[in-house]
Design brief:
By secondary structure, the chain is an alpha/beta fold. It has 8 helices and 10 strands.
Length: 222
């Protein structure tokens, strides 16, 4: 039986990689990558010569057929995303779902590591024994409902937002729950990592003043 290893990779700092992940990536026959150029930077850093193949949200069924073919001839594979844990708001979940639902004869093995969700929660100071992860906020349809629902949520809420919509997100949070305490994490583990704490209006003023609307954001709401 072949193995497919679901390997968490750094969300920014390339030192955030486990010894087990490095060993497995050296041993597998092929690494499936969201973006092969992005993954090559990690592989080159640690002198890993493994062959890579792209697998992303736009991959067609022919690519999945090729992956299944490799499994059937006994190849061991690894699946990585550009950053963090594959399958968490990530196209890797579609492949895992396909392998499970079609009863493909392969062992699916997690190699845990970095996750932007867990990293943000760990420094939030909010209750984390019971939290709600919502992935990326909707771009258009359902966006208002998204924030309305958070307003009545009793659990800690965490979601992702892009730099293009972070200002609009803070406007919505200010509208629907102006008194809730919020932690906004920008560029976690990267050079310009910044953590903002306060209410939506306060954080928006800081971001606007500093012109810090670049990078990826993780938002945690009490």
């Amino acid at each position: 039986m072949s193995n497919i290893y679901i390997i968490a990779t750094p969300i920014g700092n390339l030192e955030d990689i486990t010894l087990r992940a490095l060993r497995v990536m050296k041993e597998v026959d092929l690494i499936l990558c969201e973006d092969t150029r992005h993954t090559k930077r990690l592989l080159n850093r640690y002198e890993i010569k493994a062959e890579t193949m792209s697998y992303h949200q736009h991959s067609k069924i022919a690519k999945i057929d090729k992956i299944v073919e490799l499994i059937e001839i006994g190849k061991n594979l690894a699946l990585v995303s550009d950053a963090g844990t594959p399958g968490i708001s990530d196209p890797g979940n579609m492949l895992i779902k396909y392998l499970v639902e079609n009863k493909i004869n392969i062992k699916i093995i997690p190699i845990p590591g970095p996750s932007a969700v867990i990293s943000a929660l760990s420094i939030s100071g909010f209750p984390t024994d019971n939290f709600l992860f919502l992935g990326f906020a909707p771009h258009k349809k359902g966006r208002q409902t998204f924030f309305k629902n958070i307003a009545t949520e009793k659990r800690t809420v965490v979601f992702y937002e892009s730099p293009h919509r972070i200002s609009k997100a803070l406007n919505s949070m200010q509208e629907f729950f102006p008194e809730k305490e919020i932690v906004v994490c920008r560029e976690l583990t990267k050079i310009f990592e910044t953590i903002y704490r306060g209410k939506a209006e306060e954080i928006k003023k800081i971001l606007t003043a500093d012109n810090q609307v670049k990078g990826e954001f993780v938002i945690v709401i009490h």
